[in-house]
Amino acid sequence: MLKGATPASNDDEALVAAAQAGDYPAFEELVRRHQKNVYALALGMLRNTAEAEEVVQETFLSAFSHLATFRGDARFSTWLFRVASNHALMRLRKKKPEPQGDSYDLEPRLSTAGTSPFDALTQWARRPDDALHSREVEGALDAALGRLSADDRSLILLRAFESASHEDLAHQFNTTVPAIKSRLHRARLLLRQLLDEGLRGKAPR
Amino acid sequence: MSAPDDDKKEPRPFDCRQLVGLLGDYVDEQLPDEVRAAFDDHIAQCAPCVAFLRQYRFAPVQARATLLQKVPADLENRLLSFLGDKCRGKKPGE
């Protein structure tokens, strides 16, 4: 279930209506608003800057071509992210299988309160941007994302960028809602663990 | 993992490892009210679980923030130019 509409999404509705009627500058404004998130999602899923930019182009071309079919049942951004993730997933599925993060030994450590760099970081960083001033954090996170399987990475990012519903994710990954919830939980646990180990400077076991 | 419960006001309804299994439903606000209340009771008394929950929530949010930092500054101009060549002068769906 998606969260409530934001003021920006309400503004999107008027722009979509104008764009559907042939107002090209309205479509350009929708592009300006959403291109960063679409690129970041595609980059996170594909981990390749050239492919991420191609997916952004494909996404907005598809959006323009199919804008007449958008009925406003979901937010425009949700619809757009669905288009983007479909393009990115198609590319991922054409690639050779990559090492699966699922084989990683997942053992939640619960006894680190106050003792780990990650714990110190999450206590200190009030907002996500606060922590980005550290190249160490950025590097550890990038490495952690890279160790996840493409599907695990995609699940986490689709949920993080647009609060994609479990139903949507189950449909996109061709599985059931209980299965997708279980996979998403496991992927989040793994990302937390890999980031924790990266921040401790330990090689993953 | 859990400390002895001798000094606790109330017994914990589940242990730390069981709580980890509920984290996904907790952060996605899918737990039934009574289970969520028991979850909240547990973390109110358990610093390791508070730390773990904070990290579990933080990692995906931080991933999103990190990726947004990598968006090229000139992406917007390149994209608008590309789309203008393909779409300007047409109605959507033409």
Task: Please provide a written account of the structure.
The complex is a heterodimer of chains A (205) and B (94). Chain A is built from ten helices and no strands. Chain A has 205 residues and is an all-alpha fold. Chain A has two domains: 88 residues, RNA polymerase sigma factor, region 2, helix turn helix motif (Rna Polymerase Sigma Factor, Chain: A), CATH 1.10.1740.10; 99 residues, Arc Repressor Mutant, subunit A (Orthogonal Bundle). In chain A, helix 3 crosses helix 4 and helix 9 crosses helix 10. The N terminus of chain A is likely disordered. Chain B has 94 residues and is mainly α. Chain B has one domain. The longest helix of chain B has 22 residues. At the A-B interface, helix 2, helix 3, helix 5, helix 6 and helix 7 of A face helix 1, helix 3 and helix 4 of B.
Features:
heterodimer; A: 205 residues; mainly alpha; Arc Repressor Mutant, subunit A; 2 domains; 10 helices; B: 94 residues
Summarize the structure.
The complex is a heterodimer of chains A (205) and B (94). By secondary structure, chain A is mainly alpha-helical.
Secondary structure elements and pairings:
The complex is a heterodimer of chains A (205) and B (94).
Chain A lengths: L6 H14 L3 H23 L2 H18 L9 H19 L22 H8 L3 H4 L3 H13 L2 H13 L3 H7 L4 H24 L5
Helix pairs in contact in A: 1-2, 2-3, 2-4, 2-8, 3-4, 4-8, 7-10, 8-10, 9-10
Chain B lengths: L15 H12 L5 H12 L2 H22 L6 H13 L7
CATH architecture of the largest domain in chain A: Orthogonal Bundle
What does the overall shape of chain A look like?
Answer: elongated
Radius of gyration of chain A: 19 Å
Tally the structural domains of chain A. Answer: 2
Low-confidence stretches of chain B: 1-9
Mean pLDDT of chain B: 86
Query: What oligomeric state do the depicted chains represent?
Result: heterodimer
Report, as a whole number of angstroms, the end-to-end distance of chain A: 36 Å
Number of helices of chain B: 4
CATH topology of the largest domain in chain A: Arc Repressor Mutant, subunit A
- CATH first level of the largest domain in chain A: Mainly Alpha
Full CATH superfamily name of the largest domain in chain A: Winged helix-like DNA-binding domain superfamily/Winged helix DNA-binding domain
